[in-house]
Amino acid sequence: MTAEHPAQTIPYPGSEEQMAQQPRDEMRDYRGSGLLEGQVALVTGGDSGIGRAVCVAFAKEGADVAIAYLDEDEDARKTAELVEAAGRRAVVIPGDLSEHRHRAEVVEKTVAELGRLDILVNNAAFQSPVDKVEDLTHEQFQRTFATNIEATFFVTQAALAHMKEGSAVINTASITGLQGHKTLLDYSATKGAIITLTYSLAQALVDRNIRVNAVAPGPVWTPLIPATMDEEQVKGFGTDTPMGRAAQPDEIAPSYVFFASNRLSSYYSGEVLAPVGGQTMPG
User: Fold this and answer.
1) Which parts of the chain have pLDDT scores under 50?
2) Which residues are catalytic?
3) What local confidence, expressed as pLDDT, does residue 1 receive?
4) Rounded Cα–Cα distance for residues 67 and 43 (Å)
5) pLDDT tens-digit profile of 209-236?
6) Helices (H) and strands (E) in the chain, counts
7) The pTM is what?
8) 87 contacts: CB under 8 Å, gap ≥ 6
């Protein structure tokens, strides 16, 4: 069954309140089982969408959560309220991860406020489609790489000073990093780089018993979609998947729980899990 979305655009970076059809990202039906009891997670891009769903799922599994985000204050406060409603502590950390100084700041504030750092989710991202190759500016190219791949590496680098054996790093990649995308040239390139970086970090950190994995979703209905695509693209978003629809963030977050939990994935590192709506991926 094909499911279309309302034809709508909203200002970047997008807020859930502005969306005519809001995502399911509160994990309302999710029941935790103590998989992350007593741990602390830092989730970048944690204000809404996949990030919010991951924050709430982690909280329901027993983790305190630091929520790093750009400037969507209202969305971030709501995510914090959902974490606290699950009985865990939440810290909100606004700022631009394309700025190098802020990458270490989010880690230091997490540890200062919550006492430790066990799980890092590098989820923050920037995308802006272009109609032609010639339309991709140097400024946009640099911004995409700074936000998506540089921040992933340097936040991880800063986090390592605080991560002990058994810690986990989870990077958000994308199906575009596996297949490419004709209008998301720079975004796809960063997502491919994130996959390769995941492989490399897993090898580099295996002796420290720090696991590094990635989730590479197909289309997911989040504020980033109407904030970066035109109305017709938004309307048809995800309808080309075998399932005929985009995923909801609630459907993606359990992949992050799996990689965060040593009980579930202690023998997994350097893996890419691709929830892509029924499409068969090579390899």
Assistant:
1) none
2) 187
3) 54
4) 5
5) 999 999 999 989 887 788 878 888 888 8
6) 11, 7
7) 0.93
8) 59
* CA–CA gap between residue 124 and residue 147 (Å, rounded): 7
Buried b (16+ CB within 10 A) or exposed e, 137-168: eeebeebbbbbbbbbbbbbbebbbebbeeebb
According to the model, what pLDDT value does residue 57 have?
98
- Cα 114 to Cα 12: distance, rounded to the nearest angstrom: 30
pLDDT of residue 242: 92
* Residue 135: count of CB within 10 angstroms of its CB: 12
Which pLDDT belongs to residue 283?
53
Written as six digits, the tokens of 261 are 């939990």
pLDDT of residue 79: 98
Quote the Cα angle for 163-169-175, to 5°: 170
Q: What is the largest CA-CA distance in the chain?
A: 51
Q: For position 68, what pLDDT does the model report?
A: 98
Q: In sequence order, which residues have a C-beta less than 8 Å from that of residue 49 and are 6 or more positions away?
A: 23, 25, 220, 222, 223, 224, 249
What value, to the nearest 5°, has the Cα angle with vertex 66 and ends 257 and 263? 25
Element (H, E) at 214: strand 211-215
Q: Are 257 and 29 in contact (CB under 8 A)?
A: no
Burial of 233: CB neighbours in 10 Å, binned 0-12, 13-18, 19+: middle
CA distance 212 to 41: 14
Helix or strand (DSSP H, E) at 67: strand 64-69
Which pLDDT tens digit goes with each residue over 53-63?
999 999 999 99
Structure tokens that stand for 85 in this block: 């409603």
